[in-house]
Write a structure and sequence with these properties.
The chain starts with a strand and ends with a strand. The longest helix is centred in the middle third of the chain and has 19 residues, at about 50-70. Strands 1, 2, 3, 4, 5 and 6 form a 6-stranded mixed sheet that branches. By secondary structure, the protein is of the alpha/beta class. Strand 2, helix 1 (about 50-70) and strand 3 (about 70-75) form a beta-alpha-beta unit. It is built from 2 helices and 6 strands.
């Protein structure tokens, strides 16, 4: 799994069109302030260790949120961070499980529309900790 995270003073998104076959078009848009935004990519073979990957990713996201003193996290599936890609169903499962666990831990969680292209607006401050890449 590859995880590219940004701390955003402001992050806005709007689903534009389905990018996966069989995914229905949705009208979803939101804007959040002071959020950790996680772009994640599950790689081929990650399905066998999904529980371990999810736990590691959540620890990383919570750590980063503490550093920025925020309780808001956005999960965004982005299948362009590695050479191989897991099945879309596995990425969706990760997104749903991660969101549920973060909610249980008291975070405000946003998930972008899975299987869609998006219009995105990011306002990222300058410190290097605002842009972190992690591989699991």
């Amino acid at each position: 799994m590859k995880l590219l995270t940004f701390y955003c003073d402001r992050f806005a998104y709007r689903a534009e069109a389905p990018s996966l076959a069989g995914v229905a078009e949705v009208a979803q848009a939101a804007a959040v302030e002071r959020a950790v935004v996680a772009w994640f990519h599950l790689e081929a073979g990650d399905e066998e260790r999904l529980a371990k990957i999810t736990t590691g990713a959540l620890k990383h996201l919570k750590w980063l949120a503490r550093k920025w003193e925020t309780r808001t996290i956005v999960l965004h599936s982005f299948a362009h961070l590695a050479e191989t890609t897991a099945a879309p169903a596995s990425a969706r499962t990760f997104m749903e499980e991660a969101a549920a666990r973060l909610l249980t831990a008291g975070y405000t969680v946003h998930t972008t529309a899975f299987g869609h292209t998006h219009r995105l607006e990011l306002a990222i401050p300058g410190p290097s900790l605002a842009k972190v890449f992690k591989s699991f």
